[in-house]
């Protein structure tokens, strides 16, 4: 099912990293509101960026470096950003049917996003919606 929260949770490291089972939107909301462990951010970013420099750059776009070093849990805004990146990445994996192709899509500048990568674009809610629009159009064979 497109947009399945359990698929997003698996991309976030599953129960082992999240510290809880996530099977519904309500479960995901509760996890985000409680503050995600910072290991979730590292896990999600690691699924996208293979080079250490790219991982750090993406991670620090979501959570400032000093903040990330200081805390063990993300606050609500940081948790929402992390969940959003995981959700859009999971959707890309579903649409492309291959993790490597989804990673390439998420990390390659896209002309419909003003030359930004879809991963960079998910920092904001509206940016994530734009990426989701592109992915849904691809999934259903519609013009974007």
How would you characterize the overall build of this protein?
The protein has 144 residues and is mostly helical. The chain has one domain. The chain contains ten helices and no strands. The protein starts with a helix and ends with a helix.
Shape, principal axes of CA atoms? globular
- Mean pLDDT comes to 93
Radius of gyration: 14 Å
State the total count of DSSP E strands.
0
**Gap between N and C termini, in Å?**
21 Å
Secondary-structure-derived class: mainly alpha
Order of helices and strands: HHHHHHHHHH
Number of domains: 1
Q: How many helices?
A: 10
Q: How can the largest sheet be summarized?
A: none
Helix coverage percent: 55-70%
Beta-strand fraction estimate: under 5%
Unreliable runs: none
């Amino acid at each position: 099912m497109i947009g399945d929260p359990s698929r997003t949770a698996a991309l976030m490291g599953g129960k082992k990293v999240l510290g809880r089972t996530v099977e519904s939107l309500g479960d995901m909301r509760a996890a985000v509101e409680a503050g995600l462990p910072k290991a979730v951010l590292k896990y999600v970013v690691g699924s996208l960026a293979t080079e250490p420099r790219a991982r750090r750059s993406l991670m620090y776009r979501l959570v400032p470096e000093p903040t990330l070093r200081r805390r063990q849990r993300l606050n609500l805004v940081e948790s929402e950003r992390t969940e959003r990146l995981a959700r859009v990445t999971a959707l890309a994996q579903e649409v492309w049917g291959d993790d490597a192709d989804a990673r390439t899509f998420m990390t390659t500048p896209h002309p419909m996003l003003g030359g930004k990568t879809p991963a960079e674009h998910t920092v904001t809610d509206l940016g994530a919606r734009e990426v989701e629009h592109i992915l849904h159009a691809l999934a259903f064979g519609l013009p974007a």
